[in-house]
Amino acid sequence: MEESHDIVIVGGGICGLATTLALHRKGIASLVLEKSETLRVDGGSIGVHVNGWRVLEQLGIAAELRETANLVTAFHDVWQEEEKSTLTPVRSTPILQVLIGCDGSNSVVARSRSPASRRAPHAMGSYIGQGGSAALEDALVLARSLARAAAGSGGGRADEPCEKMMIGAATTAIGEYIRERRLRVARLSLEAFVMGELLRAKSLATKLACLAILALLGTKALSHTNYDCGRL
């Protein structure tokens, strides 16, 4: 018997699983396709900033994840070239980052009406540690946009046929998602790029220019974490 699914998510990584969970909480069914048959036994840690935890709260899984998370209370930056280091207490601002055990994620750029979510449209270096948190933001905003489209089409329950409800409004929903994320993603990408350039720079002028841009962006105060993408 041929299966029919109206929303297919390619990739069972951070954003894929968060998106399907968010859609499920809004009463919309989806299918996740992942090429790996089993979970990987290896992996590393991932930093989730406060903006990412806001999304996890909306998804209803923050409390469970906090049981295995390690709270980061300070960042220790070591500059080998200048033989100096700085210690920045996190408690001078709200608690901004924790580390949780997490496998890596692999997403395939989707086609047709499926938006290329997560890191595909905003590939960035790991210099500000926002890859995972930005992926969670993407998942929530995308699910919210699709849920609005479903409600506007007169449906929205997981046990109802979703094709008629969604196809006509899918383009509008994805356009809304892109518009809402554009400035946020541009700022994160710029900040990560400039931070990377600062670390690689040899010229004093280049370093000063990068530091000036980062000061304007509020990187030292971790202002990129003080962001709330809203309720699901």
Brief summary:
This protein has 232 residues and is of the alpha+beta class. It is built from six helices and seven strands. The chain has a single domain, classed as FAD/NAD(P)-binding domain.
* Helix-strand sequence: EHEEHHEEEEHHH
Helix content: 40-55%
How would you sum up the global shape?
A: globular
Average pLDDT value?
Answer: 75
CATH class: Alpha Beta
Strand order of the largest sheet: 3-7-4
Largest sheet: 3 strands, antiparallel
Number of domains: 1
Which regions have little confidence, pLDDT < 50, spanning 5+ residues? Answer: 93-121, 158-165
Cα distance, first to last residue?
Answer: 35 Å
Radius of gyration (CA) equals 20 Å
CATH architecture: 3-Layer(bba) Sandwich
Structural class: alpha+beta
Q: How many extended strands? A: 7
* Beta-strand content estimate: 5-15%
Family: Belongs to the 3-hydroxybenzoate 6-hydroxylase family.
Keywords: Monooxygenase, Oxidoreductase
Domain FAD-binding: 6-85
InterPro entries: FAD-bd (IPR002938), FAD/NAD-bd_sf (IPR036188), MOase (IPR044560)
